[in-house]
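[job 4471] stage=fold_predict status=RUNNING
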Amino acid sequence: MGYKKAEAIAINALVSTAINPADATTYYFGVRQDMSTVESAFVIYIPYSGMITYCNVMGYATTAGTAEPWVMNLRYGGADYPIATVAASANRRDWINQNMSLPVTAGSTISFKTTTPNWVTDPLALKIMAYFILRY
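[job 4471] inference complete, writing C-alpha cells
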C-alpha cells in the first residue's frame, strides 16, 4: 500500500472503570470509559485510510487471577484480528502485536474484543488501556 504521508497516529482507548470480569464472557471496549458485552457502543472511528501496524493492550487487576490463556482481538469489518494471547498470573498483562498489517478505510470502525477464559481464580478490579498505530 502506498502511503500518502509517511506519518502515523496513535489512537488510545481507556477503560477507567474497573470491572470484575466474568468467566467465558465476551467484552468489547473502545472510546467509552467502561467495557460491555455489547459491541456497538464501543466503536472507534478510523480517521484516515491506511494500515494498522501496531497494537498494544495493557490490563491491570488488583487481584491477578490465575494463568489461563486469555485472547485479545481487534475487531474490524465483522472479523477478529488477533493481537495476542497471554497466559500469566500477574497483576499486569500486556497483549502486544508489533507486526499487524491490517488495512482500514476512513470512516470505518474498530473495537477491541476479548473473551475471558474460565479462570480458577478470577482477576478483580481490572482496568484496561489500549492503543494502536495507524499509518496513513
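[job 4471] summary: Strands lie at 8-19, 26-29, 44-45, 50-63, 70-76, 79-86, 92-97, 102-104, 109-115, 124-135.
[job 4471] exit 0
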